[in-house]
């Protein structure tokens, strides 16, 4: 019974994750210009041929629905793309910051437990009182 509930929850999260990925994809396309313009705007003088080559490398020359399909297909395989600002793979950037994120999450969890357990004990001992 419990395993069925867990499986049900996991199956419900799959379409939610796809929905969030689609929303993120379209929000990124709402920004002025395209990612190549943003990336090359910092580089200075770039020829039109180089811009077109980069657009081809990042599949930005394809129709929007094809770009979305490629984005979702790559995300399912674990390829999170390329950071146009940092000029590195996104998975590498996440891996660099993951230890600090885990450390922060564990610290916050321990802090919450140190506060909530004593409060829970006091409220259990002093039932029906203001404390």
Would you kindly provide a written description of the structure presented here, covering whatever features stand out?
The protein has 131 residues and is mainly alpha-helical. The protein has two domains: 85 residues, no CATH class; 43 residues. It has five helices and two strands. The protein has a two-stranded antiparallel ribbon.
Main attributes?
mainly alpha; 2 strands
Ordered list of secondary-structure elements with their pairings:
Blueprint: H1 2-30, H2 35-41, H3 48-57, H4 64-76, E1 82-83, E2 88-89, H5 90-125
Antiparallel strand pairs: 1-2
Short summary:
With 131 residues, the chain is mainly alpha-helical.
Provide the spatial order of strands within the biggest beta sheet. 1-2
The value of Rg in angstroms is: 23 Å
Count up the helices.
5
Mean pLDDT: 88
Uncertain residue ranges:
none
Encode the helix/strand succession as letters. HHHHEEH
Relative helix content: over 70%
**Number of structural domains:** 2
What is the count of β-strands? 2
Question: Structural class, from secondary structure content?
Answer: mainly alpha
Shape: elongated
Q: Biggest β-sheet, characterized?
A: 2 strands, antiparallel
Distance between the termini: 38 Å
Provide the β-strand percentage band. under 5%
């Amino acid at each position: 019974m419990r395993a069925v509930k867990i499986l049900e929850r996991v199956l419900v999260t799959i379409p939610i994750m796809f929905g969030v990925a689609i929303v993120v994809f379209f929000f990124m396309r709402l920004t002025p210009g395209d990612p190549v313009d943003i990336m090359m705007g910092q580089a200075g003088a770039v020829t039109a041929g180089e811009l077109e080559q980069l657009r081809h490398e990042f599949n930005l020359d394809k129709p929007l629905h094809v770009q979305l399909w490629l984005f979702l297909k790559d995300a399912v395989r674990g390829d999170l793309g390329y950071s146009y600002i940092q000029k590195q793979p996104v998975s590498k950037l996440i891996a660099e910051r993951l230890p600090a994120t885990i450390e922060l999450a564990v610290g916050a969890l321990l802090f919450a437990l140190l506060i909530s357990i004593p409060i829970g004990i006091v409220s259990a001992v002093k039932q029906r009182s203001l404390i």
